[in-house]
Design brief:
Blueprint lengths: L1 H45 L4 H62 L5 E6 L5 E4 L1 H7 L17 H15 L4 E9 L5 E11 L7 E8 L1 H47 L7 H22 L6 E3 L5 E3 L1 H4 L2 H20 L1
Antiparallel strand pairs: 1-2, 1-5, 3-4, 4-5, 6-7
Helix pairs in contact: 1-2, 5-6, 6-8
Length: about 350
């Protein structure tokens, strides 16, 4: 394709040169022909010539007129072709100047960007990286030789490629800009989160491209995750405190009655085992209420299907659990003594 463009441009220049040579040759020939006709007219005027001389003179004048018409046609064609070529060339130069200016603005954007903001330029056809600033090289932990000219997908883990591919498809379909957050593992195998702000570049004379502004938002994501954890924990603590408070008094009443019944029954009584079982289950409920009241972190476990529930055992504070278990044991000893 490039070879055909070069040949076509040379053909235009060659044709313009040939027209110029034909114009010069025609003008020279026209001058000589005009001089000959002028001499013939002068000779004809100096003497009385026969009819044959008159016919020859008229024939020369017709040849001169025909040659003049051809020369005028060639000159007009040369002038029109020259004007067309000049106007087209000026348009090409103006378009090239606009592209250069746009490229200068683009690279000025690359060089003047803040050092913490990474910038990548890639095409939307082969999705290869064409350029990257220092911040982008530092962010992905690669030298320029391993980044520029490589596929954009090679920067991402397998699990994130589909998201970026979908974003590229949307840009190809005409979307102006989009934002996507992708997971990334740095050179130390640490999980990072990169925010991609991608904008497509409209250039009718080149392949469609896009500019991606990449930011490390790991700290922001962790802060947001911590904020959500705190909000969840606050809700869990409020519910746990209210539940433990509301259950505490009824459990104490049931526990007291159960131990009183157990102390009045003999071991050979048929109801003794039932009363003993009631006391054990009440104590178990008291321990669970104690764990609920000692919840200090947000821990969950899978329940049924996709449902998750609070993992009381892991969420409860160990020190508070041990203190509560000690209180429960001493309470049972006191009840036995009674």
């Amino acid at each position: 394709m490039n070879f055909l463009k070069i040949v076509r441009s040379h053909l235009k220049e060659t044709g313009l040169g040939l027209l110029g040579l034909l114009s010069v040759a025609g003008v020279v020939l026209l001058v000589f022909k005009s001089a000959n006709v002028s001499l013939e007219i002068a000779e004809f005027s100096a003497k009385s010539a026969p009819v044959t001389d008159i016919s020859r003179l008229l024939g020369s004048i017709r040849e001169l007129i025909t040659l003049s018409s051809i020369v005028i046609l060639i000159l007009s064609s040369t002038l029109c072709f020259t004007l067309y070529y000049f106007i087209k060339r000026q348009r090409q130069l103006a378009r090239a100047a606009a592209i250069i200016k746009k490229s200068q603005n683009r690279y000025r954007f690359f060089t003047e960007a803040p050092p913490s903001i990474g910038i990548l330029r890639f095409d939307l056809v082969e999705v290869k990286v064409h350029d990257a600033n220092r911040a982008a090289l530092s962010l992905f932990g690669r030298p320029r030789s391993e980044l520029v000219g490589k596929s954009l997908f090679s920067l991402l883990p397998e699990s994130e490629i589909s998201k970026m591919r979908h974003a590229v498809e949307e840009l190809r379909a005409g979307r102006a800009s989009l934002e996507v957050v992708l997971r990334f593992e740095d050179a130390l195998d640490r999980e990072r989160f990169i925010s991609w702000h991608v904008t497509s570049l409209k250039n009718p004379d080149a392949e469609p491209e896009a500019i991606a502004v990449v930011l490390d938002v790991t700290d922001k994501m962790e802060a947001e995750k911590e904020r959500i954890e705190k909000e969840r924990l606050a809700g869990v603590l409020e519910m746990a405190g209210a539940t433990a408070h509301e259950l505490n008094q009824p459990l104490q009443v049931i526990s007291g009655i159960a131990w009183m019944m157990l102390s009045k029954l003999k071991k050979d009584d048929p109801n003794y085992k039932n009363a003993e079982k009631i006391c054990a289950e009440v104590e178990r409920m008291s321990n669970i209420a104690g764990k609920i009241s000692s919840i200090s972190s947000y821990k969950v476990k899978n329940y049924v299907g996709e449902t998750r529930i609070i993992d009381i055992e892991k969420a409860a504070s160990p020190s508070k659990k041990s203190r509560f278990n000690g209180k429960a044991a001493s309470s049972r000893v006191n009840n036995n003594k009674g």
